[in-house]
Amino acid sequence: MIKTLGLRKSFGDNQVLNGIDVEIKPHEVVVVIGPSGSGKSTFLRCLNLLEKPTAGEIYFRGQCITDPKVNVNEVRREMGMVFQSFNLFPHMTVSENITLGPTKVRAVPLKEAEEHARELLDKVGILDKENAYPTELSGGQQQRVAIARALAMKPTAMLFDEATSALDPEMIGEVLDVIGNLAGEGMTMVIVTHEMGFAKQVGHRIVFMDEGVVVEQGPPGEVLGSPKNPRTQAFLSKVL
Amino acid sequence: MILDFSIIPGILPALLWGTKLTIELALIGVAIGLIIGSVVGIGRVSSNKLVRTITGIYVDFIRGTPLLVQLFLVYFGLPSLIGRPVPAFTAAIAAMGINSGAYVAEIVRAGIQSVDKGQMEAARSVGLTAGQAMRYIIFPQAFRRIIPPLGNEFIALLKETSLVSVIALEDLLRKGQVVITRTFRPFEVYMAVALIYLVMTFGISRLVAWSEKRLKVVD
Ligand SMILES: Nc1ncnc2c1ncn2[C@@H]1O[C@H](COP(=O)(O)OP(=O)(O)O)[C@@H](O)[C@H]1O
Ligand SMILES: [Mg+2]
Fold it and tell me: Looking at ligand 1, which atom is closest to the CA of residue A12?
């Protein structure tokens, strides 16, 4: 579904991604772990072209999306992204946050978009907050709205960048549950997280990144249980 | 030295007549400033380097030179260039509009840049184009933050209209000067002139404070 070939990204002299080759199959849940600054966010942001790769190719549903002729807006609407800092639109209600994309990008009639928004809010367990503004919600609720907003575009894949890192501990569970349910429904997902228990539970494959390269990858049991690479071992001994 | 404010009622009609011109100049000036400033302000954050550079030069030139010099450039300088005189009123609103445009541009730029970077990214990641993201996400949020400094800019512009008295436009200050040649009471007249400016600027600042409070509600 998503495939990167020799993906590189640098900011000035700072080489952040140094040749990443990863393939994500349909319905697969890939969890990316690694130390802070290793390029996990940059990798995700390259996948939906929020960052322009310096070199290499990205294929999405068979199409080379790093080709300059590709319409980036068409690619992005197919890849939902959830950010660490929620990034809800503060001047819009929860419902407006969710319906904006479908109505403006997919030309869905407002009534239909609102109906779908309610279904999604029900799914993430906050149907009663439809008309609230983001600032009136807790962090966990905001992040669940952000997930509903991304799902409203009916994306083919979802990208999560440390979706629970900005949350108070008591709210992490409710957000992980929502992401876990999506995995259960067969959504293709790339998840960056520091929640190792969750990674083990929902991940089909763990990708360990360090200094802009994939150091080790494989099934959760192997990578988290008996890592082969010393860098993976060193990282896991710190976080587990 | 005895103050004689009994002359005030007699000179008030003349002063109010000047006030009318002052308000006209300020309103037209700020309207032109808003149009120029919005376009230039957006140009300042453009992804096109040439656009950024040109708008940057305009803003720096205007903000780095006195309004009085700009006014003289338009009123005295331009006629020699185009071969015919520029009417005083036209020169005044042109100079003030162009001047205000640079300050408004900075306010607009700062407003746009004050919106968190994540907002644009979230908007783009649901597939909105850059233009749609600007229109639905960035501008509405920037607008709320632009209102208060814009009010201050209007107050500054209103006070600066007094400079046009030097090109013989009969604004509030100039009317005051004229009245003094009749009454020989400079202190009383200038006090009256000052108070009229104060009433206007105070009124605007109250209006801005009120609108600020109303816009806060959803922030
Ligand atoms: N927009 C940017 N401009 C410059 N440097 C950046 C930018 N984004 C990320 N970086 C740099 O890239 C490196 C990797 O960052 P990031 O991908 O956020 O890592 P991670 O998510 O693994 O913590 C860091 O050194 C960071 O400073
Ligand atoms: Mg990160």
Answer: 4
B92: containing domain:
7-214
CA distance A187 to B74: 65
Q: How many CB pairs (< 8 A) connect A and B? A: 67
CATH code of the domain in which B41 resides: 1.10.3720.10
| Distance of CA A22 from the midpoint of ligand 1 (Å) | 19
Domain membership flag for residue B1: no
- Residue B58 resides in a domain: yes
Calpha distance B31→B25 (Å, rounded): 10
Residue B2 forms part of a structural domain: no
Q: Per-residue pLDDT tens for A136-176?
A: 999 999 999 999 999 999 999 999 999 999 999 999 999 99
The number of folded domains in chain B is: 1
Taking the C-alpha atoms of residue A214 and residue B197, their distance in angstroms, rounded to an integer, is 68
**Structure tokens, A131:** 């008309």
Taking CB atoms and an 8 Å limit, are A91 and B118 in contact across chains? no
Question: In this predicted complex, what is the ipTM?
Answer: 0.93
Residue B219 lies in a domain: no
CA of B60 to the centre of ligand 2 (A): 38
Q: Is residue A52 within 8 angstroms of chain B, CB to CB?
A: no
Is B127 part of the contact surface with chain A (CB cutoff 8 Å)?
A: yes
- Predicted model pTM: 0.86
Q: pLDDT digit string (tens) for B126-172?
A: 999 999 999 999 999 998 889 889 999 999 999 999 999 999 899 99
Task: Give the whole-angstrom CA distance, residue B139 versus residue B152.
Answer: 20
